[in-house]
Amino acid sequence: MKANRETKRLFVGGLGQSISEVDLQNQFSRFGEVSDVEIITRKDDQGNPQKVFAYINIRVAESDLRKCMSVLNNTKWKGGTLQIQIAKESFLHRMVRQRTSQHTSSLVLTVRLKPRRHPFWSRANWERNQ
């Protein structure tokens, strides 16, 4: 029986500057199915790479995720020391989720009624203005 697999987003910090998407995909595919790798390089004022980290989407069972984190976390690999965590939800994904939930919760039928006037009101008003 296969374990229940869910897609998780991992933050991988402490990467070396020479790291590639293929390297990360090969490293993490041992534990689950890697669907997306995003490498981010922060640079200092002079444009020199200062900090390299990545986000990885991986479809993995909970037991394999724990194994991945215990095996790879705090290990030296390709010029860096890996720091692996479950990633926080990205700002854009959170905004989409919030707007979707607000939109569905605010679907209320709005009915606008014209005010009814008494039939003599308009005639009396007309006579006063004559």
UniProtKB/TrEMBL annotation:
Q: Does the record bear rRNA processing in its keywords?
A: no
- GO cellular component entries: nucleolus
What GO terms describe the biological role, i.e. biological process, of this protein? Answer: protein localization to nucleolus
User: What keywords appear on the UniProt entry?
Assistant: Nucleus, Phosphoprotein, RNA-binding
Q: Name one GO molecular function term.
A: RNA binding
Xref: InterPro entries? NOP8_RRM, Nucleotide-bd_a/b_plait_sf, RBD_domain_sf, RRM_dom
Q: Which Pfam families match?
A: RRM_1
Residue intervals of the RRM domain? 8-89
Q: Localized where? A: Nucleus, Nucleolus
Indicate the quaternary assembly: Interacts with the GTP form of RRAGA, RRAGC and RRAGD. Interacts with NIP7. Interacts with DDX18; the interaction is RNA-dependent. Interacts with DDX47; the interaction is RNA-dependent.
Q: What does this protein do?
A: Plays an essential role in the survival of diffuse-type gastric cancer cells. Acts as a nucleolar anchoring protein for DDX47. May be involved in regulation of gene expression at the post-transcriptional level or in ribosome biogenesis in cancer cells.
UniProt protein name: Nucleolar protein 8
What is the originating organism of this protein? Pipistrellus kuhlii
Q: What is the lineage of its organism?
A: Eukaryota, Metazoa, Chordata, Craniata, Vertebrata
